[in-house]
């Protein structure tokens, strides 16, 4: 969704509020594609302050389904988004585009790009379904949180195979 800012940019001291909808259906990045499960509309407040400063404020929550890093079960992660940006309207177009990054296009604000950037900054390093997640079995791929698999629990060290053979030959019964 784009919000046109031409009216507020031209009048110093003007305030404007707009309700914005997040149109993103999924969060697509180099990490992968993650569906957005829940998103709430929010009110953005724009203020053209003195000295050619544009203040953008608003807050919302976005819920994204992310697979657990250990067992790959989907986890719904809530991202609280608080927007409090201040843009300098002085200078040439190059400075504005650099400071406004990729969410200001001409005189309009791309709400989805703004939200995308806020989610990207707050993306967690590790996502777990629960603190004591057991993960998946390395051999059969069973989810160890749901049931125990029948795979052998210990893997012998291949460097110790010769010694293991000696012990097996002289094992008392």
Features:
173 residues; rod-shaped; alpha+beta; 2 domains; 9 strands; 6-stranded antiparallel sheet; 3-stranded antiparallel sheet
Number of domains: 2
Q: What structural class do helix, strand and pairing data support?
A: alpha+beta
Q: Overall mean pLDDT score? A: 84
End-to-end CA span: 76 Å
In this structure, how is the largest beta sheet organized? 6 strands, antiparallel
* Low-confidence runs: 93-100
Strands, total number: 9
Summarize the SSE layout with pairings:
Layout: E1 2-4, H1 6-10, E2 15-20, E3 26-29, E4 32-39, E5 42-49, E6 53-67, E7 74-88, H2 93-99, E8 104-105, E9 108-110, H3 111-121, H4 161-169
Antiparallel strand pairs: 1-9, 2-5, 3-4, 4-6, 5-6, 6-7, 8-9
Can you offer a commentary on this structure?
The protein has 173 residues and is of the alpha+beta class. The protein folds into 2 domains: 2-121; 135-173, no CATH class. It is 18% helix and 37% strand.
Summarize the structure.
With 173 residues, this protein is of the alpha+beta class. Helix content is 18%, strand content 37%. The chain starts with a strand and ends with a helix.
């Amino acid at each position: 969704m784009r919000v046109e800012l031409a009216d507020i940019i031209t009048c110093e001291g003007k305030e404007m509020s707009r309700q914005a909808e997040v149109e993103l259906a999924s969060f697509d990045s180099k990490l992968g594609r993650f569906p957005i499960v829940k998103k709430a509309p929010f009110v953005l407040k724009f203020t053209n302050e003195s000295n050619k400063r544009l203040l953008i404020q608003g807050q919302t929550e976005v819920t994204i389904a992310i697979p657990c890093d250990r067992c790959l079960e989907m986890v719904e992660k809530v991202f609280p988004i608080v927007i409090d940006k201040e843009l300098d309207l002085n200078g040439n177009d190059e400075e504005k585009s650099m400071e406004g990054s990729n969410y200001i296009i001409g005189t309009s604000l791309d709400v989805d790009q703004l939200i995308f950037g806020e989610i990207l900054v707050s993306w967690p390093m590790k996502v777990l379904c629960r603190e004591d997640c057991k993960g998946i079995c390395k051999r059969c791929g069973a989810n160890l949180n749901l049931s125990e698999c029948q795979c052998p629990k210990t893997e012998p060290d291949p460097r110790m195979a010769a010694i293991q053979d000696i012990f097996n030959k002289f094992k008392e019964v």
